[in-house]
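Retro notes (design track)

What went well: tokenization of the new backbones is finally stable.
What didn't: we kept losing track of which sequence belonged to which structure.
Fix going forward: every design gets posted as structure first, then sequence, in one message. First example under the new rule, 582 residues:
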């Protein structure tokens, strides 16, 4: 039996594991609506407080068991859940439902959980939408204590050495404990590639596939399971030949990783002597050190949205600056490209969200630079902090979701005003700090020449560019099969952007998922890209590909390939590209 994951069912860590299945019961507790008598309110509020205290204690116990050699990120994810348990916004509405509507504690908490989850489901940004899992895990953690179904911090009893854990869902705390109990891999029915659980799996190098619907129904306790974290495939009842095939792949993968590690300090230079700048995408400041250790020449995309998470008010200038300087210290003098806030109308961070209109399609609404220009009080502190950080090392500022030159002009005018402010205050900044823009809206690619005249660099964000061009949501299971990076329209927009940069003498990079995928990199090099930014765990593999590539040959072959692009379907094109890189 083979389960191929699609949509939200995807591989989250590129590794392979084989082991006996361990079915872990992590189904959400059932909550029955129940109303109180007025005399029960005080006791019910106390039940909620007791469950909160027990939930905190259980998470602290998990954190205390994390070995000191574990990556810092692991502890910080557990700490983020502890902070959520301290956040009044998580439980105050439930307390109000107990007092005002006589809801039982568990029904009040479940009612509030459903509202929170729906709010996150309505968010357009995939990373922010995936934060619904954190809310879900934390609230269900409390519910477990209220209903008496919690297994505390113990995801399972006994030794899980070598087991493939299969569960409805797994929290970050469970992920830590599964690793502690030496589970070899996990498969979940729900979750996405940007969830904290998935990020942790990659950090801990645990082979995993998430979003395999009904996985707990398909597998039997103890049967041998293969988890292919590269292809996003899960196999059960595999015969001896298939198992031997995967064991050979595991051995080859280990040997390949050992070879790649030796490339970290080597130059990113093609076989015919052309330099290719390989950069990392960064989400958390502490990842800067790891990114540099993997040989990155700097950061090509630093997402700053995490600064706005789990808080009532947006960060101030001082908080922004402290975080950017922390990143720069980890990079030790290599450049960092800081993308300004890319939130939208559906992702409220401050003031009163109730005063803002509901939008039917937030992907086309007030998001990215549109939101920032409309709400300068949100934008100005970040721009000032980025300018001040530029005095301490090489910094580039990047603007997301641009669709018109007018937006560029407004941002550049605001930056000039802030430069004048800082000069009057005697604050240092780099007056020549490069300012660039992301090309992720088809209009921006079609009008890239106007953008290139105004900006110092361009960066192609293929994740959104593909979605907007093909009018599909890549996280929607029902249409994600249409998400095709090799669609001729997408390739034409990429080529137009590169040519605009070449015409006006400014660098063009790519920071979307295509940039870190070996399937597409030969074509991107042939199109003329010389700067690629990717997830840190892809850097060494792409460096190996670059060092073996003859880019002058790739350019000639790509030109011929694209001349007949309309006569080829994406699969044929993919095969042709594979031959380019061989």
């Amino acid at each position: 039996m083979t389960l191929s994951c699609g949509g939200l069912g995807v591989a989250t860590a590129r590794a392979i594991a084989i082991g006996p299945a361990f079915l872990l019961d992590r189904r959400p507790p059932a909550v029955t609506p129940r109303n109180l008598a007025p005399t029960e309110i005080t006791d019910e509020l106390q039940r909620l407080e007791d469950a909160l205290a027990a939930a905190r204690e259980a998470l602290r116990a998990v954190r205390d068991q994390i070995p000191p050699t574990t990556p810092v990120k692991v502890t910080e994810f557990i700490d983020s859940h502890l902070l959520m348990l301290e956040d009044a916004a998580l439980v105050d509405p439930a307390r109000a439902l107990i007092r005002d509507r006589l809801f039982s504690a568990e029904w009040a908490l479940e009612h509030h959980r459903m509202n929170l989850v729906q709010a996150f489901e309505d968010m357009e940004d995939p990373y922010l939408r995936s934060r619904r899992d954190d809310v879900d895990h934390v609230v269900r953690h409390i519910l477990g204590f209220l209903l008496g179904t919690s297994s505390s911090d113990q995801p399972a009893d006994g030794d899980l050495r070598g087991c493939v854990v299969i569960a409805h869902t797994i929290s970050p705390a469970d992920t830590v404990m599964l690793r502690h109990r030496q589970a070899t891999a996990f498969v979940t029915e729900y979750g996405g590639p940007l969830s904290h659980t998935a990020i942790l799996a990659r950090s801990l190098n645990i082979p995993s596939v998430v979003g395999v619907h009904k996985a707990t129904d398909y597998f039997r306790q103890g049967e041998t399971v293969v988890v292919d974290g590269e292809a996003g495939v899960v196999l059960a009842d595999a015969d001896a030949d298939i198992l031997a095939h995967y064991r050979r792949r595991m051995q080859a993968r280990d040997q390949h990783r050992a070879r790649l590690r030796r490339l970290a300090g080597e130059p990113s230079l093609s076989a015919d002597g052309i330099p290719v700048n390989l950069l990392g995408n960064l989400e958390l400041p502490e990842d800067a050190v790891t990114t540099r250790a993997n040989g990155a020449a700097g950061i090509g995309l630093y997402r700053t949205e995490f600064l706005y998470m789990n808080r009532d008010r947006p960060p101030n200038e001082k908080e922004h600056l402290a975080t950017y300087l922390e990143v720069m210290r980890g990079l030790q003098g290599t450049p960092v490209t800081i993308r300004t806030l890319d939130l939208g109308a559906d992702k409220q961070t401050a003031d009163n969200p109730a005063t803002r209109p509901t939008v039917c399609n937030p992907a086309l609404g007030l998001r990215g630079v549109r939101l920032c220009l409309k709400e300068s009080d949100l934008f100005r502190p970040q721009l000032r902090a980025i300018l001040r950080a530029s005095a301490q090392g090489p910094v580039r500022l990047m603007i997301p979701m641009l669709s018109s030159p007018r937006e560029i002009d407004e941002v550049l005018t605001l930056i000039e005003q802030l430069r004048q402010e800082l000069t009057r205050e005697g604050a240092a900044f780099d007056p020549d700090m490069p300012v660039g823009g992301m090309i992720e809206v088809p209009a921006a690619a079609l009008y890239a020449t106007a953008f290139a005249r105004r900006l110092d660099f361009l960066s192609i964000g293929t994740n959104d560019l593909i979605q907007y061009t093909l009018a599909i949501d890549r996280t929607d299971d029902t249409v994600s099969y249409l998400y095709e990076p090799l669609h001729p329209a997408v390739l034409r927009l990429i080529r137009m952007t590169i040519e605009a940069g070449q015409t006006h003498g400014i660098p063009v990079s790519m920071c979307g998922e295509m940039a870190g995928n070996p399937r597409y990199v030969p074509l991107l090099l042939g199109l003329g890209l010389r700067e690629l930014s990717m997830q840190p765990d892809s850097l060494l593999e792409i460096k190996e590909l670059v060092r073996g590539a003859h880019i002058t040959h790739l350019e000639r072959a790509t030109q011929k390939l694209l001349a007949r692009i309309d006569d080829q379907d994406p699969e044929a094109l993919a095969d042709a590209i594979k031959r380019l890189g061989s």
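Added context from the reviewer: The CA atoms of residues 110 and 410 lie 45 Å apart.
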